Amino acid sequence: MKKESVFMIAAICLMACSQATQVKQVTASGEVLDFNVDGLEVTWIQDNAGLRLMPVRLFPEADSALIDSLGVRDGVPSSVSTFLVRIDGKKLLFDTGLGGQSGNLLRRLDSIGVPPSQINYLFITHFHGDHIGGMLNGDTVVFPNAQVYASQPEYDAWVVNAEPGQNLQQINTMKAYESNLHLFSFGDTLPMGVIAIDAKGHTPGHTAFQCGRLLVLGDLMHGAALQMVNPQICASFDADKAATVESRQRLLKYAIDNNLIYVGMHLPPLKAEMFE
Ligand SMILES: [Zn+2]
Question: How far is the CA of 130 from the centre of ligand 1 (A)?
Fold first, then answer.
């Protein structure tokens, strides 16, 4: 199978249930893309610059034959992605990317006329640096008007149970947002009807969010081309592999059973052709 086919596999799986989905606009940059899920306005915003390939050595369970058959020997197509959803005049942001010099979220929000002060709700899938890195600029809060939602088990793992001197980014970030921080349990319904779904494994409190027919999978997949063929394959940085596999299988089945559109923070970049 040629490498181009891998992009198509990911695209087809990503948008398997996309009949009711329409692309409204695609920017010239190709790094921001709007689509509509049953009236829900969704904007995919790529945080990283350029092409991102995940090295196959990060997927130790993937055998050579599968890697070669998919044409991903040089790396599995990936991204660092965030998602903006607009409902009832409110702006919801799912994760914040890398921040610092590497993150492009703010630049790309600016390109669509959304200053960070307009973000009303911030939903955090987990506390790795490529998801919370954009919350602070130095010590300054980037989203001053956002109510922030994170899972209690994630907060406990990184902040409450931190070893002395460890997890400083997580602790500093959550402290900076303390007055607007809301900790939820799996299964809770959050503002704007967002449902927090147990997706633990990658981290102890890793959460997927459902918003209407949109399902935000967070880091359930880092090498979608491999993991859609074989959901048992984990990335080496999935903390609890058995729990990750259980979450991945359960949520993919949930998406298919309920005709949901699923997106993820490390799925390959979205392209307009995927919606045709
Ligand atoms: Zn990540």
Answer: 5
